[in-house]
Structures are given as structure tokens and as C-alpha cells.
Design a protein that fits this description.
The complex is a heterodimer of chains A (about 325) and B (about 325). Chain A has about 325 residues and is of the alpha/beta class. In chain A, about 30% of the residues lie in helices and about 25% in strands. The longest helix of chain A has 18 residues. Chain B is about 75% helix and about 0% strand. Chain B has 15 helices and no strands. The longest helix of chain B is centred in the middle third of the chain and has 38 residues. The two termini of chain B are about 10 Å apart. Classes of the chains: A alpha/beta (about 325), B mainly alpha (about 325).
Chain lengths: ~325, ~325
């Protein structure tokens, strides 16, 4: 079985006057049909950039420097712009972080559904509106809102509308870029619940991007942890939760309170993410790492499986140390 | 609908205030305009008290009436379209004089302003869309430069180059000869005469439209709904016009309405340079000849035009931006 999406050695550069900043460096992961994969990391670790690269939504100064984005075996990076347009939304849609700003404020909600449908299908306006009404019902919004405008809706309702839009063409994959961060906690729960229900019913795959690891653990089947533009660890959610391997993942886990577990002190991770214009040598996490060894600043670890399905890039695991560097 | 009525009410009140000010200002001046004029007339021969009285009455200064009676007679004659009699065009009524000038000004500056707005906004949209392209690199500095040109200076240069050095265009007036007749050759002649003054307006004002549109558009393009529109697979044209320009044009529309309002005020200096028979020229003549009724009449017309243009702008704005339409 081919993966639904396979990102291979993806590289994204920001070409800035002070030099090239590699925001996404050699990132690889895969998503199977109907699977929810989480992508987690601190702000600025490159997770949003990686997601935008999948749909080729990056604008200068960001550039895709290399790698492959295989969607059902087809490399999206080799398509011309018209071919790419046909993939957008039809096969991969995206829900942005800011519910407030994802909808065009000056055209009606109905029209924003209609143009989506009519771009990809030959459909009369009336039929498009009927389907839009159905989609709104699906996310629990009254279809009469189609005649309304975005400013008449609350943040949570807007994000529901955006989710309904994302579902419009029944794509195989929906990229969700922190879809709930701009909302308050209660609404967040509702929306997540809804996404989960819809996902079970319609069986689309999700690439779920967030900095909230605790949320991912209960929500997704596998999780990729990114640090400073690189994947630090990629493992099934429960495996990651019970046996986090990378010291960074351990740190992330300890910076969230557990609702069900015992009380413990939250420690967090000292220091701050590196400047990607001048990343630390060797392992990028080494200046902040509590388990730093001599080899860490010298040689860069590579992402390697330590168990079936559990990959880590850390010298604590001999698999990660490139052969040439091993003693 | 309630929105329209509320705005309309606001503009009617503004207009009433303007009328009142127009009535009050001459009366606040030391002495009164009538005395000035009578003084001038008196230089050409003695005036009998009867002549003075009748002149004062003709000018609307019935000194035996109190200020409220005067105001009432002013407002009621205004309601009948009577703005008094112009001195400089005596005995033509002010209304007739203004109505002769208005079509020329509306024609020339109305069309030039609309053209300048449409072309400028269009270039602004494309320039922002192709950010960093040739258009976008060259235009902003050039436009910043040209938009600093004073109108009369552009007018003088155009006359010098295209009418004096190379006599391709007429130097003055709105048409050849002295009779207006509604024929095609005459219409062509009018357009021919209008080209240089209209060019002046376009050259001197287009930079503002381009820069205004471009700058707002550039910031609109970084909004999330633009990225979302792209992600939806919409064509470039739809994203550029329906998503970006549709939002970015709002401030420019306000500016456009304001400048349409001032069209009737005429480009005083441009009309002077081209001796164009419009409102601006008339305003200067009226001021030079102490033609107070005409001055007052023109000012009232300009105020009316500005208010009307703003009202229209409100309507258009409400049409373009649903957030303004909200009825509370």
C-alpha cells in the first residue's frame, strides 16, 4: 500500500539579506489514508512552513530547496502551477490557525463556498449553495448563515465554517495548522471533538499541527516532534507518551500538566530555540540538552529507528550516530 | 434602508448648517458687501438715497428687516432656486451663470478624475500583485515624484510643450468659435480642447491613486484569507480581484468620493491656465470683481457637491463592505 502522503527530505529555505535560513531541514514523514498524524514543536520550529510547503503555498522569501512531497505517489513539487491548483482543496485542504482572518470579510459566506465548488467542478450556483448548506449542517451551523458575512459570526463559528469549507470537496487529506489556538478553551474542546467525529465519519486523513503535545497524544495515531527545522522523533502516540526517547520530547512532556496522572512539578525546557540563521553545530538541541555528551556538538545525529515505527535523532541511541562517527 | 435614511438625514442637516453659514459670513464682515459696492458705484457719479435703497434691496440687504426676517427671505428664495443677481454678469441671475459653468467643469474634471481613479487603481492592483516586478520597482518612486507636481505647473508645461512649441493642441478655451451647437464635429472639438487640461489632472493625480492602492493591497495580500483563497485553488485573477483588491479598494473609494466632491470646485489654477469656462474660473473672476452673490452661490454649489459625493460614497461603501451596513 502506498502512503497517502510521503514527505521525503523536504527542505525549505528563507532567502534573507543576512543569508539563507533553513527553516525546514531534511524533514521526512508519512501519512496513511484516514490517519491523524500530529506535528508538534515550539513556535518557529518550522512546522507551519513544512505544512505550507506541502500545498506549495510558500511565498518569497521562502523557497523549497529540495526533497519530495509524494501524494498518492505523485511528487507535488514537480507539478506546474495549474496542475498544482487542481490538487489544492480537491485532494488536500487546509485549515489555518487564525479563524478570525481565514474568511474574506467582504463577500458572503455562501459565495465563499460557491467559488470553491465552481473552481473545481461544473456546478450551478444553486446546487453549490445546497451542498454548502449541507456542509454547514454537518458542523452544526444554521444554513441561513450562508447569506451572512464573516463578521456576524463568533470565532468558534468562523472556524467551524472554515472546517466545513475544508470538507467541501471531500479531500483525502486536511492539513490543520493549529486550528484551535485562537479560540478559548471550551470552544477548543468542542471543535476538536467535532473534527474527531467528522474524521471517523468521513475518514479523511489529518496532518494536525500544534505546539500542544498533550492534545496530540489523545488525538492522533502518530506524532512527529520537530526541533529547529528537523524531525527529532517520530513515533506512535502511545509509544511517544509512555517511552519518549529524545530528551527534547521528554522536556516537552514535562512542560504540560497531566490531567489523569499524578501531581508533579512542571519543569519545561531551559533556554530558547536557536537562531536558524546560525544553528548550533552537531545536534541542534545540544546547548539546551540535559543529557549532552561529548559527541553532541561535534556530529549531527540522524533520524533512525530504535524500534519498529519509532524513529529518533539522538546520540543516546547508537542507531542515530552515523557510522563514521562511531567509536 | 435605515442606514441610507440615517446617512441622508445627516447630510441634510449638514447642508442646512452650510446654508446658514453662507448666510452668516457676509453679515459678519465689518461693514457689509453692499456698502463696498455702493461705494464703488458712487465713484462713477452721485447716487441718490433712493438708488442706494433699491440697490441694497436688490443685493438682499433690507436694512429695515431684522436678521431673522432676512434669514427667512434668504432661505425661501433659495428654495425657489433664486441665488440673487450677479454683479459681474449683471443683470444675469447667479443661478444662470453657475448653470452655464457647471457642465464644463463636470465634463472635464469629472471625466478626468474618474479616469485617473480607474487607471491609477488598476495599475496599483497589478503593481502590488506582481510585487517586486518591474512595474512595482519603477512606479512607486516615479509616482511619488509626479504626485508632488502642482497642477498649474503641469498645466504650464503641457501648454508650453504641446500647444506652443508644437502647436498640436489649442492653448485655451473649451471649444473653437463662440457658438455651442450639438453636432459631432463640435463634440470632437470639445474633446480636443479638453485633452490637455484633462491630461494635467490625470498626470498630477494618478500617482496618489496608484500608491494608495498599491500600499493597501500589499498589506491585504499578507492576510490569511488570501493564502486560504490560494489554497482553495482559485485562479490568480479571482484571488487578485475578488479577495485582495475587493478589500484593498475601500480606502481608495473614500478618497475618490472626496475628490469627486471637489471636482465642482474646479481646479481653479488649471482652469486659469487653460482659460477653461468652468466653475473654477468663474470663482476667481467673482472674487476679483467683488461679485458676492456669485461667490456665495458657487460656494453653496461646491458644498452641495461635496456633501452629495460623500453621501454617494457612503452608499457605495456600504455596498462594498458589509461591516458598515450593519443596522443597529
Amino acid at each position: 500500500m502506498t502512503s497517502l502522503l510521503e514527505v521525503k527530505n523536504l527542505q525549505v529555505d528563507y532567502v534573507l539579506p543576512r543569508g539563507v535560513v533553513r527553516a525546514v531541514d531534511n524533514v521526512s514523514f508519512d501519512i496513511q489514508p484516514g490517519e491523524i498524524v500530529g506535528l508538534a514543536g515550539e513556535s518557529g520550529c518550522g512546522k507551519t512552513t513544512a505544512a505550507h510547503a506541502i500545498l506549495r503555498l510558500l511565498r518569497p522569501p521562502a523557497e523549497i530547496g529540495g526533497g519530495q512531497v509524494l501524494f498518492q505517489g505523485k511528487d507535488l513539487l514537480t507539478l506546474n502551477i495549474d496542475q498544482m491548483r487542481a490538487y489544492r482543496w480537491r485532494h488536500i485542504s487546509i485549515v489555518f490557525q487564525s479563524a478570525m482572518n481565514s474568511l474574506n470579510p467582504v463577500i458572503s459566506i455562501g459565495d465563499q463556498f460557491v467559488d470553491t465548488f465552481q473552481t473545481h467542478e461544473k456546478l450551478r450556483r444553486r446546487e453549490a449553495l445546497e451542498r454548502a448548506a449541507e456542509l454547514l449542517r454537518l458542523v452544526g451551523i444554521d444554513p441561513s448563515r450562508l447569506r451572512g458575512f464573516p463578521h456576524e459570526l463568533s470565532g468558534g463559528m468562523r472556524q467551524r465554517v472554515v472546517i466545513a469549507l475544508a470538507l467541501a470537496l471531500r479531500p483525502e487529506l486536511i492539513v490543520m495548522d493549529e486550528p484551535t489556538t485562537a479560540l478559548d478553551v471550551v470552544v477548543q474542546r468542542d471543535i476538536l471533538q467535532q473534527i474527531q467525529d467528522l474524521q471517523k465519519r468521513l475518514n479523511f486523513a489529518v496532518l494536525f499541527i500544534t505546539h500542544d503535545l498533550s492534545l496530540l497524544v489523545e488525538f492522533s495515531s502518530r506524532i512527529a516532534i520537530m526541533y529547529a527545522g528537523k524531525v527529532a522523533e517520530f513515533a506512535p502516540a502511545s509509544e511517544l507518551f509512555h517511552h519518549p526517547a529524545h530528551p527534547y520530547t521528554v522536556g516537552l512532556m514535562e512542560s504540560f500538566p497531566s490531567i489523569t496522572g499524578e501531581r508533579r512539578r512542571l519543569t519545561g525546557i531551559p533556554g530558547s530555540p536557536p537562531d536558524l540563521g546560525r544553528p548550533p553545530s552537531g545536534c541542534r538541541f545540544n546547548p539546551r540538552c540535559p543529557k549532552r555528551m561529548e559527541i553532541c556538538p561535534a556530529i549531527e545525529p540522524r533520524l533512525a529507528e530504535i524500534k519498529a515505527g519509532h524513529a529518533v535523532a539522538c546520540h543516546l541511541y547508537p542507531e542515530s550516530t552515523p557510522r563514521a562517527g562511531r567509536a | 434602508m435605515r442606514f441610507v435614511l440615517r446617512r441622508l438625514g445627516f447630510y441634510i442637516v449638514s447642508f442646512l448648517v452650510a446654508i446658514t453659514l453662507n448666510f452668516a459670513i457676509p453679515r459678519l464682515m465689518p461693514g457689509d458687501p453692499a456698502s463696498t459696492i455702493i461705494g464703488r458705484y458712487a465713484q462713477n457719479g452721485t447716487m441718490t438715497p433712493a438708488m442706494v435703497r433699491s440697490l441694497r434691496a436688490a443685493l438682499g440687504f433690507q436694512t429695515n428687516a431684522n436678521v431673522f426676517q432676512q434669514y427667512w427671505s434668504y432661505v425661501s428664495s433659495l428654495a425657489q432656486g433664486n441665488l440673487g443677481i450677479s454683479y459681474s454678469h449683471y443683470p444675469t441671475s447667479v443661478m444662470t451663470v453657475i448653470l452655464q459653468d457647471v457642465p464644463w467643469t463636470l465634463f472635464l474634471f469629472g471625466i478626468a478624475t474618474i479616469l485617473s481613479f480607474l487607471i491609477g487603481t488598476g495599475i496599483g492592483i497589478v503593481s502590488a500583485w506582481r510585487r517586486g516586478g518591474i512595474l512595482d520597482t519603477v512606479l512607486p518612486p516615479v509616482m511619488l515624484f509626479t504626485s508632488a507636481f502642482p497642477y498649474f505647473w503641469v498645466a504650464l508645461i503641457l501648454v508650453f510643450v504641446f500647444a506652443v512649441q508644437n502647436p498640436w493642441f489649442p492653448t485655451t478655451h473649451a471649444y473653437s468659435g463662440s457658438v455651442i451647437h450639438l453636432t459631432w464635429p463640435f463634440a470632437r472639438d470639445v474633446v480636443y480642447h479638453a485633452l490637455l487640461p484633462a491630461g494635467t489632472i490625470v498626470i498630477a493625480s494618478i500617482g496618489g491613486w496608484i500608491l494608495g492602492m498599491r500600499n493597501v493591497m500589499v498589506s491585504t495580500l499578507s492576510e490569511d484569507y488570501i493564502t486560504m483563497a490560494e489554497a482553495k485553488g482559485l485562479s490568480d485573477r479571482v484571488v487578485m480581484l475578488r479577495y485582495a483588491a475587493r478589500n484593498a479598494i475601500l480606502p481608495n473609494v473614500t478618497g475618490f468620493a472626496m475628490s469627486l466632491g471637489f471636482v465642482l470646485g474646479g481646479q481653479v489654477l488649471t482652469e486659469q491656465v487653460f482659460s477653461y469656462p468652468g466653475v473654477g474660473n468663474e470663482l476667481v473672476n467673482a472674487a476679483l470683481q467683488n461679485d458676492y452673490p456669485l461667490l456665495q452661490g458657487i460656494l453653496l454649489f461646491i458644498v452641495g457637491a461635496v456633501l452629495l459625493a460623500n453621501f454617494l460614497a457612503d452608499l457605495v461603501y456600504a455596498r462594498l463592505d458589509p461591516r458598515v451596513r450593519q443596522e443597529r
